[in-house]
Design a protein that fits this description.
The structure is a single chain. This protein is mainly beta. The protein contains 2 helices and 14 strands. Strands 1, 2, 5, 6 and 7 form a 5-stranded antiparallel β-sheet that branches. The chain has a 4-stranded antiparallel β-sheet with strand order 8-9-11-10, with no helix packed on it. Strands 12-13-14 form a 3-stranded antiparallel β-sheet, with no helix packed on it. The termini are far apart.
């Protein structure tokens, strides 16, 4: 952004939060040379809205506004939207959502990602094809467990694939691979209030349904 003559009367906001409250704790990069103002926000930083998650990519939106420094009324606003490839994705979003990609080539012989699920067998991938499966779920769902570990709150779930028609008590020879992948998120206890506030205020738009997709 380019500075004007009245910018001293404006306060920058990201979403509903003053930029000054987000920049340092969440590793925003802010630079100002007197004429131009530059802002760079990490993909996993608090303050972003995750619009959609699919096999094609993760779409995140930054809502930026300038507000009157006394009344806090919005004087100008705009949004920046970016889509990032999912690839071998395993991320813990600041809104309490875990996103993970499972690839068929993770085992030999390869597995069918469409038949994977979380600890709760009813929680399958939100999208899948013959080579990959995308999981996106709230850390308060799908059998996710949590525990305290030092100064962190650790959430854990796992992706499981069990070959069809193989009794657990009488295994037989099969070309399908058994598969289990542990998914883990660690949140500093000092940031848990932020996650809770985000969920209560409903500022993060993504709420992906947990259903198997064939």
């Amino acid at each position: 952004m380019t500075h004007g003559t009245l910018d001293r009367f404006w306060v920058p906001y990201v979403g509903e939060w003053p930029l000054s409250q987000l920049a340092a704790p969440h590793n925003y990069r802010v630079s100002d040379d007197g004429r131009h103002f530059h802002l760079a926000v990490p993909l996993l930083a608090a303050g972003l809205v995750y619009e959609s998650i699919s096999l094609q990519g993760l779409t995140a939106r930054l809502d930026f506004s300038l507000r009157d420094n006394k009344t806090r009324s919005v004087l100008a606003s705009f949004a920046v939207v970016c889509t990032f490839p999912t690839g071998q994705l395993l991320v813990c979003l600041p809104n309490g959502t875990l996103v993970a990609m499972v690839l068929s080539r993770d085992t030999k012989p390869t597995l069918d990602p469409r038949r994977t699920h979380l600890k709760d067998p009813g929680c399958g991938p939100v999208a899948s094809d013959s080579s990959r499966a995308l999981f996106s779920f709230s850390l308060a769902s799908c059998g996710t467990t949590r525990r305290f570990e030092g100064g962190y709150l650790v959430y854990e779930n796992e992706v499981t694939f069990v070959p069809e028609d193989v009794p657990a008590t009488s295994p037989i020879i099969t070309r399908d691979s058994w598969y289990r992948l542990t998914l883990r998120c660690r949140y500093p206890l000092t940031e848990m209030l932020w996650v809770s506030a985000q969920q209560q205020l409903g500022e993060n738009a993504v709420s992906v349904p947990h259903r198997p997709v064939g």
